[in-house]
Amino acid sequence: MIEIDRLTYTYPRADRPALSGITLRVRQGETVLVTGRSGSGKSTLLGAINGLVPHFYGGRFSGRVVVGDRDTRANRAHDLARIVGTAFQEPATRFITRQVTDELAFGLEAAGLSGAEIGRRVRATIERLQLGPLIDRPLDQLSGGEQQRVAVAAALAREPRVLVLDEPTSQLDTQSAQGVLDWLRDLCHQDGLTTLISEHRLGRLLPDVDRVAALGRRGELEAWGAPQDVIPSLAYGPPLVEAARRLGLPSALSVDTLAHLRKRLLAWPPHARQPSGAETRLACRGIGFAFPAGFELREIGFDVRWGEAVAVLGGNGSGKTTLLRCLMGLLTHRGQISIDGTAFHDRSVVGRAQAMAYVPQWPSAFLFADTVRDEVLTTLQYHGLEPGGMHDPEAMLQAFSLMPVADRYPRDLSAGERQRTALAAVMIAAPKVVLLDEPTLGMDSKSQAQLARRIRTWKQAGLSVVVATHDVEFAAAVAERAIVLQDGRLAAEGATAEILFEQPGLRTALQRFAGRSWPACVQDLTTDAGGDDADD
Amino acid sequence: MAWAGSAGGIALLVRNPWYLLLIAAAAVMIRWRAAGQRPSVGMLRLFAGMMVFPTLLNFLFSRAGETVLLEFPVRFIGGPYTLEAMLFGATAGLQLASLLLVMLTFSLLLSPTDLLRRIPAGLAPAGITASIAMNFAPQARRSFDAVREAQQVRGHAPRGFRDLRGIVTPLVILSLESALTVGEGLATRGWGAAAVSDRGRRMAWVGVGLFALGAIAWSLAPSRGWIAAALVGLGAGLLLVVLTRSGSRSRYRPEVWKRSDSLIVGVTLGVLGLAVVLVALTPTLLAYEPYPQAVWPTFSWPVALAVGLLALPAVVPGHD
Q1: Full-model pTM
Q2: Beta-carbon contacts below 8 Å between A and B
């Protein structure tokens, strides 16, 4: 169905190829997982199949990609749309209409089908994909999971033979992500669709994929084959593979290995994590905020001790981001906030920035200087601080492994590098409290592990961290305690491993596998906090 | 679209402040009645701002006019500062502000998707560009807020022109990224596929050729204007056929053309036609020239009534 022959592609003005010498063949009806580090070319490979590469972006393209019987060199994306359906991450930014049925009909209108045929296909798509409750609802009022389902449905409405999905669950909470992936699996099996899906959450997908394409750091095809052959060779595999490695078991998970792994996990001694200090650093009382549209964050109260990380968990739309924005003063909120006993709730954003660092979900808007080094220097200048001592820009760049890219334009960097640049740009001010909103969005497993190590280092230095995340593996890796928000209310609070285990929808891979709360994540299986910090 | 084209076209043709004010008032009424947006202080501020800036600029830098308001015994910057320069600037500002109000009303009532659907299949790339352009302002606003927040979070309260550079660069980049995202989405959804066939493309080139020949004929032999007009008409007709007949786009929920739509399209295009004729026959009727000495702008009741008809969409019910 898809034949890629010696594909090499370089973006305009790039100094090295994004894809290098890719050759692979996908049979009809196969589901292929495309994996690799951030910036390894996963999205570019998917773009080569739907025709965005090279027609939309330009650049140098050599080799051949044939989808069905169409050579992508002779067919543009809008021509290939007849046989290739595409759904991207962040569907809300790509919706073209304002309402669900219009969105489903849009591609059919572009194809010039008759009104009656469009109506038939829209109704069939709604029925088959069980989107009935969403009909005629404005797209901007749907949850992240619902929006993703509409995006996939819109791609399927044209009845394509190939479905291309670029990180379709990256913004979804665990339950919504699982719901979308289960739904996709059923669809692919029912319709015999050829599906290519790029995804960081390997563990949930692996049972349902036929092949895995692993891309290397230079855009080359590092491994290609059945999951059981490819996954053991990946530097960072899904949690169970990593757990087996940590315990010295084979990373190819045979039935025997899995049984042995379960036995070892069940025998692992419980160990409650403790923060490095006992005193309260950040105290929040009665934090509340009401949006004009109706959602309300209701009187949230919690403490964070010195050297402690608290995870803020909850589904899409539960209020995690709103809480962090209130803490930073970006929303005019109710309630009290103090740091080391000093009231902060009456301070402006700039005033709070003296002691708090905040990195939003997508750090792109956060970066506005000409180079990575300038980003760090700009923060110092804003705070009126002199470079040196604990505000040494070069040491900060070193600490975040940013020296190799220090003179590059920040927005040209990979997702992981941009995240690190944003972190360096706020950490240079030596804050006492760090607020991170969905820091692992778009990050590969290795970058996530490095960020987790970095947070542990901050905690050892006495910093307090609040991390809002739907990534339960990451929360288990970094946070001593967790709070769970539900519809803007504080629904639960406690030790992270216990909180995650108590809520079946939030359990980590190890918890689901072993059926107990501890160990909750791979990091619980080791005391090693060091390792290679080189990234990307 | 007919209303926006007519109102915008007339705002460009007219310099008489009375009629420009009438166009602005029509736009405000339509916003209020058709979209439920009452006139706000913000809109008034925007309108006033757009008038004040050119007024000041012309007052400070134009030396023409006989009614001297200020003069200083200083070389180059001493004046004279004239009333006529101020009035000329104010009229230009009023023209810009009226045009902006028309465009704001247009973008409020017509979503980028509606615009995409109404643009002929042969003009798919133009449709994408228009859609991106209509998305630009709200996206730029979101990007502006995001960058400003980012600066505050990093310890800086942006204020004044000094901080503009720090805002403008990321603003432009974020807006371009957003435009690319929209473009990606449209391309992968099949928008613009087979917009113009090879035959259509050949016809379009013939149309362009005839158009160009007409223009050349007009410049070489203006006395035989009918030849030029025939060539231009033929060329334009061919282009129109290619643009409207090419592609194979359809509508899921086709809009029903109502009597009120015919009325509005007929009346607004009629007003535009009248304005074009008046500009050609009696240019002074719609113009306002404060130089060399300031006078009140002329006012004609029939013209005012005709321009006032642009407010029709605010009072005719049931139109789209």
Answers
A1: 0.76
A2: 160
